[in-house]
Structure formats: C-alpha cells, structure tokens
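Entry for the shared binder. Reason: the reviewer on the internal report wants the predicted structure included alongside the sequence.
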Amino acid sequence: MSSNCKILGISFFNGSLKESLRLSKLGGLVVAPSGPGLAYDLTRCDVYKRSLLESDLVLPDSGLMCLFQNWFKRQKIKRISGLNFLKHYLDNYNHHEPFFWIMPNKAQDKTNRLWLWKNHGFKINDRESYCAPFYNKTGLIQDNILLSMINEVKPKTIFIQLGGGVQERLGMFLKENLQYNPTILCTGAALAFLSGEQVHIPKWADQLYLGWFFRCFFKPKLYIPRYAKAFRLICMLFKYGEKSPSR
C-alpha cells in the first residue's frame, strides 16, 4: 500500500517504484524535485512552490531529504530518483501510445533522439519533439506554441527534459491549459544521463544516493557550488519539518 509523507508542506509519494509507475499512468503532473530546488526555489519562487503543491505525484528524488527523514525524523521514506523512474517508465512504455518530448537544446535533442531509437525503439519525428526556448528563471511560464503542438498531437505522455525549477513550472502551465489530461513527466536531466549528454551514473551509485558525487567529480565548477547550496535544505528540514517554509 502506498502513502504520502508531508515534508516542507509538500505531499511526497511514499511507496514502491512499481506503485508510482502505476499512478503516473493515470495522468497528471509528475515531478521529482531536486535537493537544490527544494533548498532555494521553494522559498524564492511562489510559482515553483505552487507547481509542487498542485502536482499529482511528487517523487522523493532528493537523497539528502530522504536520509534526513530516515535518520533524524525516524520516518521511513524510500527514495525514488527521477533517473530510476524514467528508466523503468521507458522499459514499460507502450509504443502504440503517442508521446511528446521537450528537450533543452538542439544538440541534446539530436543525441537523445538517437539514444531513444537505439535503446527503446522510439521513432521521434519533428511533430513529437520540441526544443524549449530560454524560459524566465522565476514566475509564470507561458508557451502557446508548445501548447498548440501538444494539443494537435495529443500524446499520452509528455516527457519534459529541462532543468529543475523550470520543468515544474512548465509542467503546471501545460496541466492547467491543455484540453485533455496526459501524463506530464518532469524528470530533469535523467535522459541526458542515459544518452551520454551528461556523465553516466551507475545503478549502484544512484541506489546509494551518490549521483551528486559523479556530477561533481566530472564537472566540479558547475555542480560543486550547486550541491553545496543544497545543504541549506538540512536547515530548512530542521526548522520547518512538515510545515511549508516561509520566505
């Protein structure tokens, strides 16, 4: 039986990977907020916060948050990483169902499409893929060109492969404005790790919450400052616990 765990005012899914996959197929917005996103965007962007609160399924992706809950709160919560979730989602995807991919740029669009074709048999044409423009860092996101494309294709699943803090707000925009109820997956850079656009994270490292270490080792200038900031999350967890943090 699955349940939810309230952390920082957000209702995180607390169950098995198999159950989370089943629930995701029902439609709605599925997000996997990162530790850095929770540490900073949650208190600095009301739209990001609302996107998590109004999501249909919030996966406990942050290893730091899960370790804190298990060690200090004595509240058992099993981490489900966006990477592992996407792997299993793709392994079980019905290719007869229409799909749509939102990529961060043309280079990743090309690499990711090739990887998806070779490894999962996805034949993605230009109507089923969209290179996102540069969205604003905070506030509402509105993309009527994307909205029109998706309403025309009517995919069963929309795969958003953008950075944390942006993908959740874009997902909420789509959820509120589409003419039907698809599954909208916000798994961040998970596909880039699989396709080789970003550093490969072994299964054992993901299970041991060490994905951050691999990122920091291969791109220290980019990821060390980012993950150092994530430790602010510990202070927030001690201070607020189940309650929603204030600005």
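Summary line for the report: Residues 16 and 30 are 15 Å apart (CA to CA).
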